[in-house]
UniProtKB/TrEMBL annotation:
It comes from Bradyrhizobium betae. Belongs to the bacterial solute-binding protein SsuA/TauA family. Residues 46-265 form the Solute-binding protein family 3/N-terminal domain. This is Sulfonate ABC transporter substrate-binding protein. InterPro entries: Solute-binding_3/MltF_N, SsuA/THI5, TAT_signal. CDD domains: PBP2_NrtA_SsuA_CpmA_like.
């Protein structure tokens, strides 16, 4: 997969834009028209963040804001958010402009439910440590041991699909395992207290839990999953992307620059993440040893989009997503 060039506008899109321009001139002053012509109708972008991941580092490091400031764009950070779904709700509700760079699965679920969202770009980071874990001494040492047990997952998200994939690979009927739908802040204490027997979770929560709760892997995404089903993604509303294509491109490039810095400065990045996440030096050092790399993919990267469509179809077939979705209908036109 490779980074693709910016897609050329279609003739229909050009004519539609022209018609909009003619019809809207009467209601715009010259300043408004000048802003629209540059592909930007606002000088402020509202970004969501959580207690882990690239957005956290971008917020804490401060270089991201400096990059956008060169284009006259001010950044407002909103958060922290516990996972991707609430950031999608914030964008749909109009209190934020971009989701925080999270799982494609809840993003697709939100789109299917009617949210007017479009993808602006995608990220793949490696290695991935998402896993299903159980506490040491629980008697749960392999996927087959989950029969009759409860597993905490986030609905229509990375946790749920990983459990579905693990059960399928090991020929365990889903009806024999209890899915407990919890967001990460509630799932962690549920595992610690024994209210659930296992937890399907992503980094850094799963890595912290392994140490804090003396847990071990039952199924590790990077090792046991035969193909990638879920990706990291940024989304905004279709309206925002249509009215502000230049701003969306600028935000995309700023995130790419941040990802490049993290890939090249993993140790420094992990120290920044640890300070905000408040986890142990042992967890931090494990992350440093991973030497994670971030790769970005544009919305017009046909090969990548094809892989995402296959993943969406897989999720629909297994009822993680409620109905089919055509990914190409939900991409920002940049």
């Amino acid at each position: 997969m490779s980074h693709s060039r910016i897609a050329k506008p279609s003739r229909r899109g050009f004519l539609g834009s022209a018609a909009f321009g003619i019809g809207a001139l009467a209601g715009m002053n010259i300043g408004d028209f000048a802003e629209a012509a540059t592909g930007r109708t606002t000088d402020t972008v509202r970004l969501t963040w959580g207690l882990s991941g690239l957005n956290l580092i971008a917020k804490e490091r401060g270089e991201f804001e400096k990059v956008l400031a060169k284009d006259g764009v001010k950044v407002e950070w909103l958060g922290p958010f516990p996972n991707h779904a609430p950031t999608l709700q914030a964008v749909t509700g109009g209190s934020a402009d971009f989701s925080f760079g999270g799982s494609t699965t809840p993003a697709l679920a939100a789109i299917i439910a009617g949210s007017p969202l479009v993808f602006t770009q995608f990220v793949v980071y490696e290695p991935r440590t998402t896993a299903i874990i159980a506490k040491d001494g629980s008697g749960i040492d392999k996927v087959e041991d989950l029969v009759g047990k409860s597993v905490a997952v986030n609905r229509s998200g990375l946790g749920e699909f990983l459990l579905v994939a693990a059960l399928e690979k090991h020929n365990v009927d889903r009806s024999k395992v209890k899915f407990v739908y919890l967001n990460p802040p509630d799932a962690a204490p549920a595992l610690a207290s024994g209210k659930v027997d296992a937890w399907s979770m992503w980094s850094p929560g799963v890595d912290i839990a392994r140490l804090d709760y003396k847990a071990h892997d039952i199924f590790l995404e990077g090792r046991d999953l035969d193909f990638q089903i879920d990706y990291t993604s940024y989304l905004t509303t279709r309206k925002f992307a249509t009215e502000n294509p230049a701003l969306v491109r600028a935000v995309n490039e700023a995130f790419r620059a941040e990802g490049k810095w993290i890939s090249e400065n993993g140790k420094d990045a992990e120290y920044i993440a640890q300070k905000a996440g408040k986890y142990s030096d042992e967890v931090r050092d494990q992350f440093i040893a991973l030497k994670r790399q971030y790769r970005y993919f544009a919305v017009n990267d046909e090969r990548f989009i094809s892989e995402l469509q296959k993943a969406a179809d897989w999720l629909v077939a297994r009822k993680v997503l409620p109905e089919p979705v055509k990914v190409t209908d939900h991409l920002a036109q940049l």
